[in-house]
Each structure stands twice: as structure tokens, then as C-alpha cells.
Structures
1.
Amino acid sequence: MSILKATGNDLDSLAELLDLYRVFYQQKSNINGAKEFIKDRLSNEESVIFIAFDENNPIGFVQLYPSFSSVSLKRTWILNDLYVMESVRGKGFGEKLIKKAISFAADTGAKGILLETNVENITAQKLYEKIGFTKEKNYFYFFSI
């Protein structure tokens, strides 16, 4: 397995993976929309994406968005998307993708990585805790449109 920082050359593979990820979250398949979305993120340098390959086959990705902490005067990263193809789950690819994201965050001098997951996604929660993430107990998160 290899994990590489994604470039425009990975656009087709990433679009397929993003489409599968979205379908996992009960969204309609939209491969063209996924491709355009990824293209915009990469060309505008609005996110960092690492893509995992198993024997040259793309099998997963992790996408990080930059943010900043005024209090700590440091960059933070938001781990917004993590996906591993269903056919290869349970083989450690998700853990390796997250560890790559953590290493990248450390290399960029970031304060840390923030992520969120559905309350019902127990499998992901166990993985995050295994790697060293902790559930936030001191803050509430609010959302508005």
C-alpha cells in the first residue's frame, strides 16, 4: 500500500472515491459533481487530499481543510472526509490514512486536527480513539445555515 498527496492527475480516481463516500452518506450518486468539487479544491489549494493505493488501485482517501486558531496563533486542520472502499475495510487502510494526516499536520506545525463523526458511527469512533483522538467535552458546536 502507498499513500500519496493527491494531484490533478488523481482527479478521476478521487471523483470515484468521493462519489462512493457521498453515497455511503445517503447522497445521490453524482460523479461529475464529485469530479468538479475535487478539481476546485485542488486547483484553488483549498484542501489537502491523500489518496491510498493498494497494488496501484485507488482504495481510499482523507481530505483535510485548513483552519486557524487565533488563541493559539496556529494553523489547525479539519479532517472532513475519510473513506475506504468497502471491499478493503478492516485491513488498516483507514488507520494509515489518518496517521498520514496526523504526520502532515505535525509537519505543518499545526495545533492539531479536528474531526466530527455521526453519533451512530461507532466503528469510526473506535478507530479515532485507538489512534489517540479524544471526544471533546469542553465545547459545544453549533451550526447554522
2.
Amino acid sequence: MPQAHDIKPRGDSEKITINLGYVDLGHVDLLVRDGFYSNRTDFIRTAIRNQLDRHREAAEKAVVRRRLELGISHFSRAQLEAARDAGETLDIRVLGLATIAADVSPELAHSAISSLHVLGALHASSAVKAALADRTV
């Protein structure tokens, strides 16, 4: 059985790691030291938000074109069983966070989900992720 910590959302953000050249990192540290940003994370978040804002129109068009659900989408065992029992499968398309409940078995996920396209983060047990590997875009 999956551990709850395998799929429980951890706050409202996902941790990422980046590699940055020494000179660029030095420039970031200089701006932090001079008070433009409170820390490296503040600088990186600000830079990312500025780029997202700069490309907002293109991103919004892509969300519509790709038929993505925006935000947090949770898929329960009951939802997946209902789809399977009706002879239907789900085409999951999420920009944000998709979660698959802890009590969903790999077999149920595989039979109820025809495709899984998540831009952002997917929280599901390792076994469910493995069962859906051939359906993940």
C-alpha cells in the first residue's frame, strides 16, 4: 500500500533544483547583498514570474489549445471506478497539480486513465506512476 507521504501535496509549491554558472550566481548574490532581493530564492521567483508575465498571452493560448485544466485536479478512487465501470477512460490534462488518491491501485489507474499529461506536478504513489508510465505524455 502506498505511503501517505508519497502523494500528499507539500504546501502550495514544488521544490526544483537548478544549476547556475558561478558568475551568474555571483551577480545574484551581489543583488541580494545590496538589498534588491531578500535571498536567492526571492530573486529566482521574481525572475520566473517576470518571464511568465512576459509570455502570458502565449501561455494562455497554449492552455486553451491543449485543453488543459488549470490549477489543482484530484482524482479519487470513486471517480476512477465510476469511469471504469461505465466503460470509459479519462484523458487527464492538467497545468498545475494533479493528484491521484492514495487508495487507487495501479490496476485501477491503468484501466481508468487512457492518457496523463501534467505540466507542473503529479502526486501519486510510485506504483501508480509506474502503471501509467506508458500513458504519460
3.
Amino acid sequence: MIAQQHANDYWKANLRIILWSLVVWALVSFGFGIILRPMLMGINVGGADLGFWFAQQGSILVFLALIFFYAWRMNRLDREHGVDEV
């Protein structure tokens, strides 16, 4: 029973990390790049407006950062729950 609860806690934490990563990805790619683009047009980054920058480069950079964050956080979670690779 304790092992099952431990496994449930691990997967709940895993799903929470995935959910927040997807929320950040959606906010940056769809929110900043498409939906909020008219509001971001007045801010210039490298000669282009911020909404265009997020649509073209910012969402890609944030996606790469999310990959590294997910790997780092999952390694830490694995160690906390004793399921890490030695």
C-alpha cells in the first residue's frame, strides 16, 4: 500500500511538471506570438516588434529552455523518489 502511494505521488508530481511546461509553452507560442501580438507591437527587439520576435524566435528558445528544465526537474524528482538511474 505504501509503495502504491509512493508511485502515485511520483506520477502526480510528474504530471504537474508536464502540465506547467505545456502551459508555459502555450502562453509563449500562442499567447505572445499570436493572441497578444497586437499588444506587443510597440515594443521593439532587434528591429522587429516583440510579438513577431516571440512568433519567430522566442517560442523556439523558450521551448529549448523547457526541454532542459524538464530534464533537470525530472532527474531531481527521480532522485527524490529513488527511481533514478545510477
4.
Amino acid sequence: MTLTSGQVAKQAGVGVETLRFYEREGLLPEPTRRTSGYRQYPADAVTRVQFIRRAQLLGFQLKDIKELLALRDDPGADRQEVRAKAVAKLADIDQRIRDLEAMRTDLTQLVATCHGSGPVVGCPILTAIARTE
């Protein structure tokens, strides 16, 4: 059974342009075409697109997703490789959280210095942002 671009997109919950993007990026194999030029995807394309979307929601970049797909498609691959990629992504997320928390602390302090009234000249927030330290 084959599916059209519209069918795959609808079942996977993405737009048709997303499918084309995934094809260009090498995440989704280019489908065969009917004589009319319409794309014909295998039924498992829906599952593959859903995998890609879920991996993106978990923070994986397209490069990482391509590697995860290659591991998934390789029956000789070891789980340790997949786990290592997930552990690395988790460490990356933890670092981003620390960075965001530091930004939040700094911004909270800046907001506390500004009463929000008066002329913008001399605004402590703008002055702090303009510092070249």
C-alpha cells in the first residue's frame, strides 16, 4: 500500500512541505512517483515522520535524528550507541537549563533596578545591557 504526500502528512500530523524538507535533509527517502508525478510513499513513512517529530520534541537536531534513524534501521546496531546519544542530549539540555536559570537570575536583578517610570535616558536595564564587560 502506498500513500500520497497529503495522506502521509495528515496521518503524521505535519504539513506536506515538512515532508519535502525531510526529503531534502535526507531524513525521509525520496518516494517513487506515479506517472502523473505525484509522490507515492510506503506506509511506514508515517511512522518514520512521527519518529522524526518526536525526536525533535525531545531536543534532537536533524543531524542527531539522521544518526538515530541510521541506528534504528541497522539491525546490527547496539543499544549503547542510542543510549550514548540520549545521554549526550540530556547533558546538553541540563546545560541549557543552567544557562537559562542564570539568564533569569540576571534579568530578575535588572528588572528590580528599574521602577518602570520616567525617561528612558539612564534606564538601568538599558545601561546594564550596554555595558561592554
